[in-house]
Amino acid sequence: MPEAISSASGGKCLIGGRWVPPASGRTLPVICPSDGRVFAEIASGGAADIEAAVAAAREAFEKGAWGRLAAFERGRLLLRLSAAILEHAEELAALESRDTGKPLRQGRADIRACARYFEYYGGAADKLHGDTIPFLQGYTAASFWEPHGVTAHIIPWNYPAQIFGRSIGAALAAGNACVLKPAEDACLSVLRIGELALEIGLPEGALNIVPGLGEEAGAALAGHPGIDFLSFTGSPETGTAIQTAAARNHIGCTLELGGKSPQLLFADADLEAALPVVVNAIVQNAGQTCSAGSRVLIEKGIYEEVTGRLAARFRELVAGPHDRDLDLGPLINRSQLERVQHYLALAREGGVSVLAEGRLAEDLPPGGYYVAPVLLGPVPPDHPLAREEVFGPVLACLPFADEAEALALANATPYGLVAGVWTRDGARQLRLAHGIRAGQVFLNGYGAGGGIELPFGGVGRSGHGREKGFAGLYEFVRLKTIVWNHG
Ligand code: NAI
Ligand code: MG
C-alpha cells in the first residue's frame, strides 16, 4: 500500500468548496521521480467530475458569495492565501520537491514565487480601471473590464505551484470562478494549496480542482461548453487540441507552449557574468523549463574559450535525488527520460560532439529517472538539437560570424519565448532586442522562470497570449462598453 499523504485532498477533487471522491472512484498513483516509487494517490477525475466542477464554478460566479464580493475583498482573500502559502512554505516545498524530483531549494523558490503571484494579483484586484470615451453630444460612454465568468486552467508538471499561482491568481483577482485540471505527473502542492484556500475562507466554488489524465479530465474540461475562457501551459501538440476545443466553443485561450530559447554571446560580453547564467538557464529544473536557455550562440572569436569554460563547469555538475539538493534532480518520468535519450541518440547519429557531460551522484536509488547534463557543439543549425525542444539538461552550442548571422540563428526555430543577449555594445543590444522574435528579451541577463511582474509568453510555436504582470490579468477580463443617451 502506498504511504498516504495526510491531507483532506488525498484521492479527491475540490468541487464547490468540498473535497469529494471522483465519480468513478478511481485514483492515480503519485510517483517520486527520484526513486520511481509510489508514495501517494490522486483522484483520476473524468467527465462527470468536470461537469460538477463547471456547474459549481458557474453557481459561485452567478449566484454565490464569490460573485458578490467587491474587487478589494477578492484582493484581500488572495493576500491571505499568499500569507498562508508562506506560513506553510517548508511543507509545500518538500511536497513539491518530492512530487517533481526537483532539488529542495528549487521547491522553496517555487513556493515563494507562488506566494508572490497571489500577493501581486491580490494587490492588483481593485486596480483594473476602465475608460471614459468622448462620444456624441448628449451621450456618455465608458468601457469596463469584466471577468469572463468560468475560466478553465490546464497546467503542467514542471512548476505546478508557480504555474498555479500565475494562472489562478490572475483569474481570481479578475473575479472569475476557476476550474483547474493540474498535471497527473505532479500536483500535490496544488491540492495542498487548495486546502489552504478553503482554510483562509475563499468562497465555495471560486476554485475547483479536478486532477486526472489529460485525455480524460483535461479533454472534458477543454471541450466543456460551460467554460468562458481557457488557459493552457504544456506541449505544442496538446496546445493544438486545446485551441481546437476553444474554437469549437468560440472562446478565447492563452497557450504557453515552451521554446528553444537562445542566449547570444558576443566577443565583448562580460563572460564572468554570463557563463554562470548560461549554465543555470539549462540546468535549473533539469532543463524542464518552458523558458530554458537551451541554445547558446557564440561569436566565433570566443567560441573555443566559451565552450571550454562551459565544459569545465558541466563536468562538475551532479544530478541526484531531490532531497540531496544537488545541481539537478531527476526528470519527471520515464517518457521524459526516453525523450532526452532519443535526442542524445540523434546527436550521436548526426556526428554532433559531446563537449562535456556532468555526472550522476553516487548511490542513486534504483528506479529514478536520472540523466547527466550534456553540452553539445558545434550543433549544425538544421539539426533537431538546434531547433527542437528537448526539455532536459542538454545545451546546444552554435558558433556565429557576425551580428546578422546571430540574429538569423536566434530566429531560426519555430519557437519564440525568451532570449538573452550578452554584449557591451548598447546599439547592438537594442537592435537585437527589437529584431529577435520572442516574448521576452533580456540584455546582459537571462530570467528563466523569474519575474512575476514581467509579461511572459510566446510567438509562433511558443504559443500566444501573455501571463504574469498586468498583461496576465488582462487576459482574464473582457471589455464591455456602456453607452448612455441622456439627451
Ligand atoms: P502535455 O502538454 O501533454 O501536458 C500538459 C497538461 O495538459 C497536463 O495537465 C496534461 O494532463 C494535459 N493534457 C494532455 N493531453 C490533453 C488533452 N488531450 N486535452 C486536455 N489536456 C490535456 O505535456 P506532457 O505530455 O506532459 O509533456 C510533453 C512535452 O511537452 C515535454 O517534453 C515538453 O517538451 C512539453 N512541455 C512543455 C511545458 C511548458 O512549460 N511549456 C510543460 C510540460 C511539457
Ligand atoms: Mg502529453
Descriptive labels:
487 residues, alpha/beta, Aldehyde Dehydrogenase, Chain A, domain 2, 2 domains, 6-stranded mixed β-sheet, 16 helices, binds magnesium ion
Write the CATH architecture name of the largest domain. 3-Layer(aba) Sandwich
CATH class of the largest domain: Alpha Beta
Level of helix content?
25-40%
Low-confidence stretches: none
Q: How far apart lie the N and C ends?
A: 75 Å
The fourth-level CATH homologous superfamily of the largest domain is Aldehyde Dehydrogenase, Chain A, domain 1
> Which value, in Å, is the CA radius of gyration?
23 Å
User: How much β-strand is present in the residues?
Assistant: 15-25%
* Structural class designation: alpha/beta
Task: Report mean pLDDT, rounded to a whole number.
Answer: 97
Number of helices: 16
Shape: globular
Number of strands: 22
Task: Find the CATH topology of the largest domain.
Answer: Aldehyde Dehydrogenase, Chain A, domain 1
Strand order of the largest sheet: 15-17-18-13-12-19-20
Bound molecules: 1,4-dihydronicotinamide adenine dinucleotide, magnesium ion
Main sheet, how many strands, which sense, barrel? 7 strands, mixed
Q: How many domains? A: 2
